[in-house]
Amino acid sequence: MVGDDNVEALDDAMIEDMGKGYRFRPMMQAVLIGIIILVTAFTLFLTDMLDFTVVGHLTITTLTFCWILAFVFPLIVKTKSHRVHQVSMGIYWASILSLIGSIILLIVDQSQTTTILPTSIALLIAFLVGVGSQLFQHLNPELVKRNALTYLSVFSCSVVFFICVWIYMETLIPGWGIWLTIVFTALFAYALLPEKTI
Amino acid sequence: MVFAEWEWLIPVLALIGFIIGFLITVKQRKIPGISDVIDTIVMKYLDERGFRLNDLVKETGLPDPVVKRAVKELERNDIVFRKKSGWFQLNDPLIFLSEKDMIRASRLTKDDNLVYGGYQNPFFSHVELITVYGIFLGAIIFAAICFFVEPAKIWLWQLLHGPTAVNDLELGIFLLFIIMLGMMTTDAIENLISIWSRERYSVVIGERSGIAFDTSYSDEYSGRIGRGRIRKVDLQISGIQKFMNYFLRVPIGDIYICCVPKEQGGPTIAFKNMPFPREMFFIIRSIQLKSLGWRKRHARTLMLWRARGAIPSIRF
């Protein structure tokens, strides 16, 4: 493959992926992912969540599948190829968009019949920002480096996170909410900052 | 209810999200000349040999802007680095030290050609540190109990909202927040432990100086094993390590080095939970046999392996 300037194809030129010896074979990784999907489906079946005639069950099922896969996929699938990266990014965006859709539907529904408090919606947005950014960092460690863009992104996410958590905390513990929010935001920002190699 | 009417949109959105995620990463970036530049670096400038852009332009025969862009890309991905003098140098693929420790190691080994460097995994060397993950696990268990066990559910609801009827959705959102806090706290503490531990208990292997290692916290590589003293080297990966290596980001294992044969009362020095133990083992065998030829032969592979995943297929 010498002479090929395609960055991903350069990876394929590897004689042997050294990390491969420590990992499950690709087939075993696929089997494990399959088992997790089955266990999730069985758990949802046991809790009657697969009955889609009940309002909310389809949403819960979709979110459960997407988020469990989003977290488990990078943990189990260690085969480093462009296709695997594409699938993991696909699962990530599926999780994010389905949660955003659910939040929008909740907000729209809120205007017609009161279902949940607006403060809980703020908390749901904090969850979206918090878990979404953490997951993005785990899926793309190579994109998260100590540079101006990362610091700006962490700062922006922290501001949104702070506002949303503060809205909730202030109603929960009036007066003290802001102090707890500052601690949570500091934790959030610190956990998000890129780690050094190894 | 709007939610009931439009709920079908959620799985559709998930599907759209999957397609978007899949497609935005489909394009593979092409960087002209990067292959020639990599070849030249690994063939001519391995082992701490510095080079300038002009050298690469001369060696590859590529135009100056092409070489500049390729080197910039390699620098951006930590495959090469620019020294204060302006010269570039290849980051050795099996050096997993922070820049600060790399400088320290170079200084203490009198600028020897360092071929491996890494830190002990802090979590497996101090099992008590694994309890950090208990925070996340605890948050999940707490959330599960409070959501599925009725008395616990009522207790938590009354704690949050007083004696009103339980709203499952609101409680669920709060419990999701608790799980997220557990995850964030674990991640933040894990970061702290890694930073605290990575500056200690490091092991470096130099081509001529042999093995240098920290024997205590705040040590300065006082532990030394000259390459001539190495009699026997063993690699051991325990069952737990083998299992954890399936999931850990960095695989770990133990290396045992015997300086004087055991029958003569020689001690065995153990380096436990070292990153990429097989590669460390091969490096030690190589310096013991004074043959680092394989490393040169596979320099391109090693370099690409290190770069693997470091070069993203897209830029955000």
How would you describe what is shown here?
The complex is a heterodimer of chains A (198) and B (316). Chain A has 198 residues and is an all-alpha fold. Chain A contains seven helices and no strands. Chain A has two domains: 1-115, no CATH class; 116-198, no CATH class. In chain A, helix 5 (118-139) runs antiparallel to helix 6. Chain B is an alpha+beta fold. Chain B folds into three domains: 33-91, Winged helix-like DNA-binding domain superfamily/Winged helix DNA-binding domain (Arc Repressor Mutant, subunit A); 95-119 and 202-308, Pleckstrin-homology domain (PH domain)/Phosphotyrosine-binding domain (PTB) (PH-domain like, Roll); 127-196. Chain B is built from 14 helices and nine strands. In chain B, helix 8 runs antiparallel to helix 10. Chain B is flat, with a radius of gyration of 26 Å. Mean pLDDT of chain B is 81; it is low at 308-316. At the A-B interface, helix 1, helix 3, helix 4, helix 5 and helix 7 of A face helix 1, helix 2, helix 3, helix 10 and helix 14 of B.
